[in-house]
Amino acid sequence: MQHDRLLRVSNITISDGEFTQFQRFIFDAAGITMAEGKKALVSGRLAKRLAHHGLNTYSEYFAMLASGRNPAEVQVAVDLLTTNETYFFREMKHFDLLRQLAQESSGSGTPFRVWSAASSTGEETYSIAMVLADVLEARPWEVFGTDISTRVLERARRGHYPMDRASQMPQNYLKRFCLKGNGSEAGTLLVEKALRNRVQFAHLNLNETLPPSLPQFDVIFLRNVMIYFSAETKRQVVARLLTKLKPGGHFLVGHSETLNDISTAVVAQGPSIYVKR
Ligand SMILES: C[S@@+](CC[C@H](N)C(=O)[O-])C[C@H]1O[C@@H](n2cnc3c(N)ncnc32)[C@H](O)[C@@H]1O
After folding, report:
1. In the prediction, which pLDDT does 10 show?
2. What's the rounded Cα separation, in Å, for the pair 114 and 143?
3. Ligand 1 within 6 A of CB of 34
4. Which atom of ligand 1 is nearest to the CA of 79?
């Protein structure tokens, strides 16, 4: 029976009008602009939710999301429509810079604070924490990881990863901060508890007002998420995040991203590296 239903659902096609509904849905929910070419991606990722609810069309699923009666399902759809690819020490140049900034930090007693603002499953956030634990040792530091997807945040808090995500991780960090899985866990690593406990993960939509409790940061990583935003959304998100960056603080974006024409409140220090005026 179940098998029949799955087969049937996999045959459901998404119409242009339905695709437009989901384009609007993910734009309103996350600020993500979904190009026309993503129709197959949207229908593929949402097909299992139609099956789960026994629905026959994408319009029915959209109506369920739009009804406002099922916020948990809205989160599931957001989780499915976001792209979460990441790995440890992605774009190493930023971690070399972070090391240097931490070394040069004054040690005035205020914690050195870093925000991984689209953390996905946490590899970026833990990479930052490893560098700070290494450089700052007993001096105070804080690392925050935030994302719109609750599913990736659960995985981030667990800190358990396939080993291939760590191919760029320095060997001494692998030994010092990670446990290698044995037996049924072979081929995986677990970020050690002491480091996990020093990192805070929270749900945060970059397209909404930031919580006033969020402190001022020395460095903000906003990497490989602006590619999904329109120019106007980028401007709004960057302006919002810059209110949480200390003057002279560093703002890091993905290597294929730029803040040219997005903000005049920062100065480029090199490709993908900006400093707040
Ligand atoms: C490709 S991952 C980037 C991960 C990491 N920063 C890196 O560079 O490897 C993009 C992440 O941005 C998150 N994201 C997308 N829109 C968002 C929004 N409006 N607010 C917060 N996070 C968002 C997605 O859920 C996803 O986990």
Report:
1. 60
2. 5
3. no
4. 25
Question: How many Cα atoms within 13 Å fall on the side-chain side of residue 174?
Answer: 17
- Residue among 124, 148, 206, 230 whose CB has most ligand 1 atoms within 8 A, to mutate: 148
Protein residue whose Cα sits closest to atom 19 of ligand 1? 30
Confidence at 127, pLDDT banded by 50, 70, 90: very high
pLDDT at 2 over 80: no
Query: Residue 82: CB within 6 Å of ligand 1?
Result: yes
- Residue 226 phi, psi dihedral angles, 5° rounding: -65, -20
Residue 57 Cβ contacting ligand 1 at under 6 Å? no
CA of 180 to the centre of ligand 1 (A): 27
Q: Is 4 a catalytic residue?
A: no
Active site residue 45: yes
**What radius of gyration, in Å, describes the C-alpha atoms of the chain?**
20
Task: Report yes or no: 175 and 105 within 8 Å, Cβ to Cβ.
Answer: no
pLDDT average, residue stretch 134-161: 96
- Ligand 1 pocket member 152 (CB < 6 A): yes
Q: Is 120 near ligand 1, meaning CB less than 6 Å away? A: yes
Would you place residue 106 in the very low, low, confident or very high pLDDT band (cuts 50, 70, 90)? confident
- Cα 109 to ligand 1 centre (Å): 31
Taking the CA atoms of residue 99, residue 103, residue 109 and residue 114 in that order, the dihedral angle to the nearest 10 degrees is -20
Q: What is the pLDDT of residues 16-44, one digit of tens each?
A: 999 999 999 999 999 999 999 999 999 99
Task: State the pLDDT at residue 9.
Answer: 46
N residues, the chain: 277
SS (H, E, C) 229-265: ECHHHHHHHHHHHHCCEEEEEEEEECCCCCCCCCCCC
